Task: structure prediction
Amino acid sequence: MTIHPRFGTRFALCCLLGATLFVGDLVLSAGLVTRRASAQERQEATKQATTPVGKALEKVNVGDLAGAVAILEPLAGRSDTSPLAKALLGGLLVQIDRPADALKVLQPLADPANADPAVLYNAGRAALAIGKRQQGEKYLARSVERDPHSIASRELGLIRFHQGRAADGYLLLKPWVESHPQDRQAMLAAGHCAVELRRAPEVEQILSFLPADDAEAMLIRGKLEVLKGNAESAIAMVKPLIASASGPLESQMRLLVADAYLRSGNSAAAVSLLQGKTAGNPLLHLFLARATYQQGDLDAAAKLFASLSDQLLSAKNSALPPGLVALSALEYGRVLLARDDAAGAVPFLQRAAELAPEERQSWQTLGQALLLTGRKQEGEAALARFKEIVANAGEDKWSHVPSQVAYDDPTARKLSEAMNWLSKGEPDKALAAIHQEQELSPNDPRPWLQEVQLLLVAGRKQEAASAADKVVSRFPGTADPLYLRGVTGMALEQLDKAEKDLRQALSVSPQHTAAMSDLAVLLMVQKRSDEAKALLERVLELQPDDKTARANLDRLQEGSKP
Result:
């Protein structure tokens, strides 16, 4: 267990066990002094000091963990031993590196549905320590479900980060580091995840809590520069640090600088940086192959790619990111095609198209390779897909977020991605993207509002109504949630409720032209033309170019003529 520097062992155990401890007349809860103890509480604490748990905690308080275990372990098999004593024993056994014994004690406490979050946390640590990964992760996940503020969120977040699951890791680590900014390990992991998710402003916030000369923080800063499009700045920042780095950090720095060289068109420098440094590291090896390909040495590139061909074709590859596999498979396919091996190129180009189905170059090159191997029908289908992607590229109104907006506002980029999925007939993927952004930015109303809009566009009116109720509750007293709930009410033909929401939106924001316009439409349906006319005229005062309001007003005026 890692004890936060602000907490002593006794405080940490209090946090892990969900217990309340007493020191003098102070009440300690979750490792923090919360208040003065009452007389009754002090009396109860005195009684506790004479129990096995109290005696064990006294041992813990002076650092004698083995002595605490010696008090509690003989009681573990007794039916009258309290769950707290067993929980404390299990946590101590983990700390003194007896995880198998700890799990034996903790599992009966952890398996029930109502298990204590701290017990689940310690059971998870014990299971992981003896190689029971699935069981350990399950216990940690249940601990987080029972208490989102549990330290289990940190441990599970680090696990997800090391598994390459940046989104899952960041969802767990972000709230943890916000409340524990001195936790360097968690802060660094959150920074790497945030860069991977292209959440640049949040990366900058995380970096503000880390020392400027921290080597791994400098690596994250370099990644941030690449994200901002400043490859040369990343090279200048990180390359000098490689000589003094070692182990995984050196490899990550070398990889970042090589990537920056490739982005800036300096493949020769990337080759020089990587040659002789890729043993046992498939990522570095793959970047060396790509740099060699971009340098124009097709024979050498083919040999380098070939040594990783199984990983490029594997459907269950955990060592390489799917996006990089797709790009590398495309490049290898091109190398083989250029060397007149169309048949050999086809499997890699198919893999590239499978992993990146919206990448036009994969389909174009695959079509060419298939035609060269005599597979005319498949080749023509691949080329047709290429032409379809090209034709749709300029028509998707949701696909483009300006680069500066994408950098400054990752939420806008994520919501654009969601609407992109919707435009492709994938509402569930769109909703998944929105729900992830809701978790990452819970105080930003846009993901919650867009969920309502998306469900309405998808024709899922009842779900839209439920989502609208949630956004009104989450952001009370604001106009847009009320407006959207009014629109949802109109869609469900609940006109009285819709009118109430639209009028309330206007009371909050009197110049909310969308609410005015839709309220006017509702009134037109109910033949309440005078107020509808006044609302539409007000809309046109504020927005003279509103064609919908103009058309509705013209309809009203036309209907009023004798």
